[in-house]
Design goal:
With 219 residues, the protein is an alpha+beta fold. The protein contains 7 helices and 14 strands. Strand 11 and strand 12 (162-163) form a beta hairpin. The longest helix has 12 residues, at 173-184.
Length: 219
Amino acid sequence: MSDELMKYLIIPVTPFQQNCTLLWCDVTKKAAVVDPGGNLDRIQAELTRQGVTLDKIFLTHGHIDHVGAAKQLAEATGTQIYGPHIADKFLFEELPHQSQTFGFPQCASFEPDQYLEDGNRLSLGEMDIDVLHCPGHTPGHVVFYQKDTDMALVGDVLFRGSIGRTDFPGSNHGQLLKSITGKLWPLGKQVTFIPGHGPLSTFGEERRSNPFVADQLFD
């Protein structure tokens, strides 16, 4: 899929069918992989197939289905890992336990090269990508937003017809609702978002019909 400057391809990975996203600038062919949770060979094959050069790895949060292959991908390509917010550091320390708990291949603890904060801006070729700290599903969850194409990569904050789980350590339901209504909705109803699992949607559609965060629930 494309929107002039930005192109993207969703690569389902892990038994949880997590939406790993290959994102690239169509002018420079510089690419980012967002949330490489596993299936490294599948991700590398798409990098080759699309003829793009991996420039950065973005992580929305520290759950293993989103980060499980990040360190391997970084080492294989000499690429740095950006995100999430430092409040998720404890999840990276617990990756060996996470992998055992959820039946994933063994994953060693690691730290991103750069933790991100609300308001950071990252470059990818000729594109700027804004960082929004959106805690609730995890304390350090971030969302990546590309203003020119009205596209957001929201991880497990928001889904089509649902919202992220808040029964994990460090989760907070009230905080999640505040992140969605206070950080995401102001970006505009026209924004299309890629969630961590499931199909794409728009903020406008979720504000109209999502049973957890529709506008009428907060009137």
